[in-house]
Each structure stands twice: as structure tokens, then as C-alpha cells.
Design goal:
Structural class: alpha/beta
Distance between the termini: 13 Å
Radius of gyration: 17 Å
CATH superfamily: Aldolase class I
Shape: globular
CATH topology: TIM Barrel
Number of strands: 8
């Protein structure tokens, strides 16, 4: 059985108290999976900035299996006059090992462009953080037949500052914009097609096969997890709403694994 990466993007949800409660619930719910965590299953959660330290404290004080910790965004500078931004040293102080880059809500709602995303990718590697690069098309782009053109631009621009070895360490997350928070999901065949194409494109960009890890995100839950995660090119899931409760979050893996 392949290794599954199960990453939970909490978005603008979960207070400090709710985060602490989640970690206790996670330790209990993940106990039956403790033997496979790290080997067949890698779990990470991405709380809002205000809850990162609460997550860190809970991870050190709660007895039981714990997820990795990541942030939902980061700025490229270590310090300075950048109101409202958070730096890599701040994230590392909170215990973060991963950071989401280029989520569609950052691109489309908050106006982040590809040049800034590329700089964030470079900054993450310079500081030893693993970027989780999100990419995907809108419904209008898909219906116009431009989905792969849009995604190729997103992927090539993001990895352009990286070496092949660095590109291999990125966790890529295909998230069709039309499936995020809508209750709709790409079919397993649609997700497989894009994830397999992404691996070929990234191998071409690197000049060799780099063993790329590609997640699928977009209304993933227990009821569709087995079909999606059983696809050869899909290495896990970037989960939104279903990751806010430890039980429903871990159900995604157990549904796939048949536990």
C-alpha cells in the first residue's frame, strides 16, 4: 500500500481553545493508526496563525500520536515593515515544518501573483521549510479548454527558481477552484488525469524523474476518499472542512485503507 499524505487546511477556522481540543481528539482518534503513521501515513495540519502556538504546545503536552505542523501562508522577508505578514522565522519558532503556498484563495481573493509565489518557494527552501504548492483551474478556465495551459504556467513559474532536487521535495496539491468548499469534487478519473499529467510536466521541467508527490484537494471526505486515493497518481489529500474534526479527518485514510 502506498504512503498517503493527509494534510488539513483549517483556513480561517479554529480558535486556540478549539485547536487544543482538536489535538486531544486527534491523539485518541489516531491511536489505532499509530503503527502506520510515518510509514504509510503522514498527517499534517495547517492552523491559522493565531492558533499555531497552541498547536505546538498541545503537541508537546498531549500523549499520543501527533500530526506535523504547517502554516497557511508566509512572507518572503525575515522582518521589516510588512504590516499583516508573518515571516519564516516566526513560523519555525512555532514548530512549523511545512507551509501552504499559492492557495487559490490567496491567488484569486487576495491577489497573489506568480512572481511572488515563486519568491516564496525560494524563501522556503532557503530556510528549510517544505512548501505545499497549490495549483488548479477555475470552472471558466476548464470550460474554455484552458485548464492545462493555466496549470502549466502555475507549476513552471513556481519551480523555476528551484533545483531538481528541491522540486522533488515540494508537495504539490492539485485543487480545482470549482471544487473547493462547494461540495463538488473532481471525479477520480479527472483528478487522476491532472495528477499524472502534473508528474510528467514536473519531470520534464526538472530534466529527470523526480518522484513527485501530488495531492488532490477539493471537497475530499470519507465518502469519496477510497475512490480518489486509490488512483495511481494521487499521493494523498489536502482537506478543508473535513479536517476540522479529528474523527472525520482520519476517516479519509481509514476509508482508503479499508480499516
Amino acid at each position: 500500500m502506498k504512503k498517503i499524505r493527509l494534510y488539513g487546511n483549517w483556513k480561517m477556522n479554529m480558535t486556540r481553545a478549539e485547536t487544543t481540543a482538536f489535538m486531544s481528539e486527534f491523539a485518541r482518534s489516531a491511536k489505532p493508526l499509530e503503527a502506520v503513521m510515518g510509514r504509510n501515513l503522514e498527517v499534517a495540519v495547517f492552523p491559522p496563525f493565531t492558533s499555531l502556538w497552541a498547536a505546538n504546545e498541545a503537541m508537546r503536552s498531549v500523549s499520543g500520536p501527533m500530526p506535523l505542523l504547517g502554516a497557511q501562508n508566509v512572507y518572503i522577508g525575515d522582518h521589516g515593515a510588512f504590516t499583516g505578514e508573518v515571516s519564516i522565522p516566526m513560523l519555525k519558532e512555532c514548530g512549523c515544518t511545512h507551509v501552504i503556498i499559492g492557495h487559490s484563495e490567496r491567488r484569486h481573493i487576495l491577489g497573489e501573483g506568480e512572481p511572488l509565489i515563486a519568491k516564496k518557494m525560494r524563501a522556503c527552501f532557503d530556510a528549510g521549510l517544505i512548501p505545499v504548492l497549490c495549483y488548479g483551474e477555475t470552472l471558466e478556465e476548464r470550460e474554455a479548454g484552458r485548464a492545462f495551459q493555466v496549470m502549466e504556467r502555475q507549476l513552471r513559474s513556481a519551480v523555476e527558481p528551484l533545483s531538481a532536487d528541491e522540486s522533488a521535495q515540494v508537495v504539490y496539491a492539485y485543487e480545482p477552484v470549482w471544487a473547493i468548499g462547494t461540495g463538488k469534487s473532481a471525479t477520480s478519473a479527472e483528478a487522476q488525469e491532472v495528477c499524472a499529467w502534473s508528474k510528467r510536466l514536473l519531470a520534464e521541467a526538472a530534466g529527470r524523474d523526480i518522484g513527485t508527490t501530488v495531492l488532490y484537494g477539493g471537497s475530499v471526505k470519507g465518502s469519496n476518499a477510497k475512490e480518489l486515493l486509490s488512483m495511481d497518481a494521487i499521493d494523498g489529500a489536502l482537506v478543508g472542512g473535513a479536517s476540522l474534526k479529528a474523527e472525520s479527518f482520519l476517516e479519509i485514510y481509514t476509508a482508503y485503507a479499508g480499516s
